[in-house]
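Lab notebook, bench 4. The sequencing result for the construct came back, and we need a structural model before the next group meeting so we can plan mutations. Quick request posted to the team channel:

Model the 3D structure of this chain.
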Amino acid sequence: MQTETILVVAPNNDGRKFVKLLQHHHLPFAVLTNSAVKEKQFEKQGVKQIVRIDTSMTDKWVIPKMTVGRIFIFESSLNLTCRYLQICRSWTEREICVITRQLLHPRGVYQRMGANRVIYTKTGEVGFILQ
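Done. Here's the predicted structure in token form:
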């Protein structure tokens, strides 16, 4: 059986800290981004697997060549988070978790778009979600 890869959308500091945590624990993961600049930043951080996708071009959304397990999406905006949910939901049957600092963003919207869990954090500390 092929090892499942954790997929992380990490457009903010909370997400980057989570990526460092995954590196520290030597867990198999990949970062999903829509930005060449972010891709270069993750390469400098030592991330081995980076999937860059054009979030605006639906005909170019291809399933990565890996077995995608759990997905963690760190919210940067409501629209972009919904777009990532739309892209990723078909990639795994495992849990998709959205992490947000915005208490007012509707949990139900993300759940209707495919998120299994929406976690609100004030501090950005979300290491507990790896258990």
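Residues 30 and 83 are 18 Å apart (CA to CA).
Will bring this to the meeting.
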